[in-house]
Amino acid sequence: MSYQGEKGAFSEIAALRFGEGHPCPTFYDAFQSLLNGTTDFAILPIENAIGGSVYGVCDSLVEFKKEVEIVGETHIPIQHTVLGIHGSNIETASEIASHPQAIMQCQNFLRQHPHLRIIEAYDTAGAALEVAQLKDPKRLAIASERAAEVYGLSILHPKAADAGWNKTRFLIFKKSLHHSHKFGYFQDFVRFIEENDTQFPFKEQMKSRRRLRLRAFFVFKLAKRYEGLDNFFRGLSRFNIHIEHFTTRPIRHTAFFPVYLLEVSFNRLPNFKLLEAHFQKWCKSSELLGLYPLL
Predict the structure, then answer these.
(1) Backbone torsions φ then ψ of 110, nearest 5 degrees
(2) Averaging pLDDT over each range in 68-72, 177-181, 188-192, which range is the top one?
(3) If you average pLDDT over each of 145-159, 259-273, 275-289, which comes out highest?
(4) In the annotation, is 26 catalytic?
(5) 40, 1 Cβ separation under 8 angstroms
(6) How large is the average pLDDT for residues 145-173?
(7) Out of 117-131, 205-219, 281-295, which region has the weakest mean confidence (pLDDT)?
(8) DSSP track, 135-170
């Protein structure tokens, strides 16, 4: 299972729930690893309880929307720790590095230590790895406890996050076999999984649950820039759909005409033919990237 980051990243912790993890430097590379067959699945963060949407994943998902399929999700508790080499000290250090999302989630700690110059890194575990390589007592990192174990670092502060209930939601992807996500295909989703998809991560859990809450993920663009979004959402109400997550992302070379990422949940499958007609009425383009159980 491919993930973004070095060993010890929270993404690796999520990947290890399902098997062996395959580290990748960027979200793009994690998707490419999936598409070229290096891995069977990819697991990437989509939303954090404190920092909100992970826009890098959102943008990559828009780019690869016709090539990947979402098959599940998992939630990982996030406990940020401040790491340094043995003998280092928070008060005498001068720099602290981490991923921008982790920095956003540890604002209270950073405000209490204004002498620490913040350095953005591509990954929390990557920041920890660099601390271990530099062997500089003045450089610290915000990363996981596992990163401390992997790179032999000391935990200088065990709870750096703004809230103890901090967690991140990860989406699990597989390579799409359909090239175009047809709404009607998902009408037979459960039967397809049981009969054809032997590698589906949640197959056994699905068999053991008589009633599952399902989540669907859509990417769409409206037909008109300043009209239709209120009408689009008003029309969704007749499908007994609960909106779970909604994100707006800009489109390159098109000023202020965004693409929307929408996650909804429901207790029973809606009529996908009518749902598809609803999207066609209000949207210039739309893709259903996946339908998966919430366990």
Answers:
(1) -65, -35
(2) 68-72
(3) 145-159
(4) no
(5) yes
(6) 95
(7) 205-219
(8) T-TTEEEEE-HHHHHHHT-EEEES--SS-TT-EEEE
Catalytic site residue from 10, 41, 109, 170? 170
* CA–CA gap between residue 83 and residue 148 (Å, rounded): 7
At 78 the three-state DSSP class reads: coil
Burial class for 40, CB neighbours closer than 10 Å (0-12, 13-18, 19+): middle
What's the Rg (C-alpha) of the chain?
21
Beta-carbon count within 10 A of 258 CB? 16
Confidence of residue 160 (pLDDT cuts 50, 70, 90): very high
Number of Cβ within a 10 Å radius of residue 195: 9
pLDDT greater than 50 at residue 185: no
pLDDT at residue 241 in the model: 84
- The whole-angstrom separation of Cα 21 and Cα 201 is 14
Whether 186 has a pLDDT exceeding 60, the answer reads no
**Residues with Cβ < 8 Å from 113, sequence gap 6 or more?**
90, 96
- pTM as predicted: 0.86
Q: Which two tokens stand for residue 182?
A: 């047809």
The edge-to-edge listing of strands for the beta sheet with 254-266 is 242-251, 254-266, 213-222, 283-294
pLDDT of 188 > 50? The answer is: no
Catalytic option among 168, 173, 183, 279: 168
Q: Active-site residue 173, yes or no? A: no
* Strands (E) located in the chain: 2-4, 22-24, 42-48, 52-53, 68-77, 81-84, 95-98, 117-120, 139-143, 154-157, 167-175, 213-222, 242-251, 254-266, 283-294
Non-local CB neighbours of 36 within 8 Å, separated by 6+ positions: none
How does DSSP classify residue 91?
T
